[in-house]
Amino acid sequence: xxxxxxxxxxxxxxxxxxxxxxxxxxxxxxxxxxxxxxxxxxxxxxxxxxxxxxxxxxxxxxxxxxxxxxxxxxxxxxxxxxxxxxxxxxxxxxxxxxxxxxxxxxxxxxxxxxxxxxxxxxxxxxxxxxxxxxxxxxxxxxxxxxxxxxxxxxxxxxxxxxx
Amino acid sequence: xxxxxxxxxxxxxxxxxxxxxxxxxxxxxxxxxxxxxxxxxxxxxxxxxxxxxxxxxxxxxxxxxxxxxxxxxxxxxxxxxxxxxxxxxxxxxxxxxxxxxxxxxxxxxxxxxxxxxxxxxxxxxxxxxxxxxxxxxxxxxxxxxxxxxxxxxxxxxxxxxxxxxxxxxxxxxxxxxxxxxxxxxxxxxxxxxxxxxxxxxxx
Lengths: 163, 203
Prior knowledge:
The complex is a heterodimer. By secondary structure, chain A is an all-alpha fold. Chain A contains eight helices and no strands. The radius of gyration of chain A is 50 Å and the shape is elongated. Chain B is mainly α. Helix content of chain B is about 65%, strand content about 0%. The chains are: A mainly alpha, B mainly alpha.
């Protein structure tokens, strides 16, 4: 394969279109010195011409009219379509999204409450650890101590006479 | 509107405003190359026609998204190629029934009867028909990207850079695809190409 840049440029031109007479003359200068390159170029050129001669695919005479009809149907369908569709095909996916979002929200909320309760429990434990609970025996005299607060105030006049 | 605006872009601006006459002009200009690409990809004239029409319907539907900076032909052939690829994938997922399956009511006839695609060239020699059949077969056997690259290469509206854009690969990769595809074709068609038989008939 010829790696000459100028040869490759002309070869790539030939891929796209038939070369002009000047380009063909320029190109033939390369294979002239090398019979293998000559054969390679002839095959390359032949393939280009063969591809050029491929018949066009058949296009019906009413092709453009049929495209415009399809476009008209498309435009009419779009005009008829309601802005909000009650079709289950439209609603079902949207409902699924709403349910998924609501579910995630609920889950997140529950996780938050659980975390809050756990933190509260840890705080209570911490407080109880710093100040131990009262001895139950002490609490047994609690009623008597509580009633002490309800005793009548001291007689100030009597106390003054006793001094 | 700028004076040097590409004519196709000017027509597309009108299509964006709903001008179907402008769309008709674009269809008339590009229906042949789009059909060529579709036909040589799908190998069925009816399906190629449906797909090619759908390409232009998609152009109309996508017109609001068209930007002047994008060359129309590049955009068009990108849509055409993508629709062809979708159809190839659909066929791979849902294989067609056998072409040789008998008709349920007429067992001596095949289920599918296809028009001889060569009949639109009634005066070609037998040798030329054979060569043409070989070329079409060799093209059909190429990988899709090589075949598309070679076919788009013959569209003078598209530069190599634009072909690369349609194929969604680099410029060097595009040229490599074309080179490899052509080398494969040359190998398969060498006896015919060197015989010069194809020169005997005029196009």
